[in-house]
Write a structure and sequence with these properties.
Layout lengths: L1 E6 L3 H12 L4 E7 L2 H11 L3 E5 L7 H10 L6 E6 L4 H10 L3 E4 L4 H12 L4 E2 L1 H14 L15 H11 L4 H8 L3 H15 L4 H10 L7
Parallel strand pairs: 1-2, 1-3, 3-4, 4-5, 5-6
Helix pairs in contact: 2-3, 3-4, 7-9, 7-10, 8-9
Length: 218
């Protein structure tokens, strides 16, 4: 069962999403919040698997709330940030705050539900309409480190190759075609990369690759 917290200052949106979740056998909406502070408090007390936060909320915006949730000791909650605005600034802040996904509210309800399942599995996603633009901008928005971190030596040559393709916003299917392997093999490589580098998910692997000059920098 995937336990979800919904945080949005529009009661109609919350009730609509809750109604959608109620039709899914594998979901349970364990709480609702109308502002960012309430979302942080409920995330701490309810410990949901996924928290869905709107960017624009009173008292504490969704990005600051995400940062507070993700930095809490022992936190296991994955955060999806929702917005009506296709803004690079929001995407950067959401990723740096620790969000596992940035999605537009214009998505169909079934796509939002699918995104919650992805986040609950520990994967990450950004709305396809902003992914590649975001990645192409990382080269100028992130200052690369002077030297490569020591943990990169733990990666095999194939894992490093996969990391570079992940950093290029390639999907598992695209990586599989490029490397002439199966998608399950790619998933295994990605999981090992995240574990060896101590990263939460593949979006943060993208940030890691650019921050350490593996792509776009040197």
């Amino acid at each position: 069962m995937i336990r979800v917290l919904l945080a949005d200052d529009h009661a109609m949106f919350r009730s609509g999403m809750r109604a959608v979740l109620d039709t899914q056998a594998d979901f349970e909406c364990v709480g609702e919040a109308a502002d960012g502070r309430e979302a942080v408090a409920q995330a701490a007390s309810l410990r949901p698997d996924v928290a869905v936060l709107d960017v624009r909320m009173p008292k504490l915006d969704g990005l600051a709330a995400t940062e507070a949730i993700m930095s809490a000791p022992g936190n296991d909650t994955r955060v999806l940030v929702l917005t009506t605005y296709d803004s690079d600034e929001y995407v950067y802040r959401a990723l740096r705050a620790g969000a596992s996904g940035f999605l537009l509210k214009s998505l169909a309800p079934e796509e939002l539900v699918s995104a919650m399942r992805v986040a609950a599995r520990g994967d990450a996603l950004i709305d396809p309409s902003v992914t590649r633009r975001l990645v192409s901008t990382f080269a100028t928005s992130i200052e690369p480190a002077a030297t490569e971190p020591a943990e990169l030596e733990r990666l095999t040559s194939r894992e490093r190759e996969v990391l570079l393709l992940v950093a290029d916003a390639s999907s598992n299917a695209e990586i599989a075609v490029r490397l002439h392997v199966g998608e399950e093999t790619v998933k295994t490589h990605v999981s090992r990369i995240l574990a060896k580098l101590g990263l939460r998910d593949r979006v943060h692997a993208v940030v890691y690759a650019y921050r350490n000059g593996l792509v776009g920098g040197r």
